[in-house]
Amino acid sequence: MTVRAGTDLCRHCLCACSAEDPGMTLDEQFQPPPPETPTYGVVLKNARTAAGLSQVALGNIVSCSESLIGLVERGQRKPTKSFTIAVESALGLNGDLFRLLPNTRVMSVPKWFSEWPAVEESAHTIRTWQPLVVPGLLQTERYARAILAAEPGATEQWIEEAVETRLRRQSVFERNDPPMYWALLDECVLLRPVGGKEVMREQLEHLLAMAERPNISIQVVPLDVGSTAGLLGGFSLARSEGIPDHISLEDAAHGSVTAHEEAVRRVSVRYDAIHKWAHPIHMSQRLIREVAARYEHQ
User: Fold this and answer.
1) How far from 262 is each of 16, 186, 266, 267, CA to CA, in Å?
2) What are phi and psi of 184, to 5 degrees?
């Protein structure tokens, strides 16, 4: 699938095809029209701010934690009726939140990341470096669930929706013209028993199976390399026909998707710097196989 500049699909997916400045972020280039009504979380945050209350202060008033207030404001926790009654009373609202309650949904991915699947879908080449976990496009369902369940405040509903969203992204490999995918993993990704030994063995066997595909390359950067440019964090780069290259960056607090030319250049140079330390493909596969066998016999 190739996204053409100026098409309805191009505008819908918020890519940077027809922007006057391809160096702008996706949010800057294509701001979708505002919704007819703000979300529950936005109304709550605005009312709390207008009342001069921090999340901690509001939490103390309504007898809940600061983190719960934050999760509801960010759309990561569905508010209950009793919560809504309490905060409306505390903030002096007159049904503003109640009117939005029936339509509230839990966001299964961060807002900033919602743009990236469309970038993946149009890409003919994707390169990624992951120092901590297996890349989302290569995760098994059980591994993904274990990763997502570790998110503080995660509900069962949010976990299920997030897992479903992550697995749906993997359909890019089932296209008639799947992207070339080059994954660099730190060796510690193999050694961390996410979800337990059985889940991890299954995950590593899945990596080996995916690496058999002609469009997928998986290489491991050994631990004994020491310090590399990769320790600054994980990232992905996507290249598509007819539109600027894009990168996805993520840290503990937030992330970004951008086509800014200088940012893309710097991340591409960083990828190349990390790649030179990676094991060759055959050695990487042997290492993955050895670690998987250890999980099986532990």
Assistant:
1) 15, 25, 6, 9
2) -110, 125
- Residue corresponding to tokens 């996805």: 248
pLDDT in tens, 230-250: 998 999 999 999 889 999 987
Q: Is the pLDDT of residue 37 over 80?
A: no
Residue positions counted in the chain? 298
Q: Which residue has the tokens 């743009």?
A: 115
The pTM score is 0.66
Cα separation, 117 vs 110, in Å, equals 12
Rounded mean pLDDT, 179-200: 98
Which tokens hold the place of 147? 């990763």
246 CA to centre of own chain: 14
Residue with tokens 């508010």, as numbered in its chain: 79
Distance CA 246, CA 244 (A): 6
Number of Cβ within 10 Å of residue 281's Cβ equals: 13
Rounded-to-integer distance, Cα 152 and Cα 110, Å? 14
- Of 197, 220, 247, the closest CA to residue 16 belongs to 247
Domains and CATH numbers, the chain: 40-103 (1.10.260.40), 111-297 (3.30.870)
61, 151, 192 from 14: Cα distances, Å = 40, 27, 36
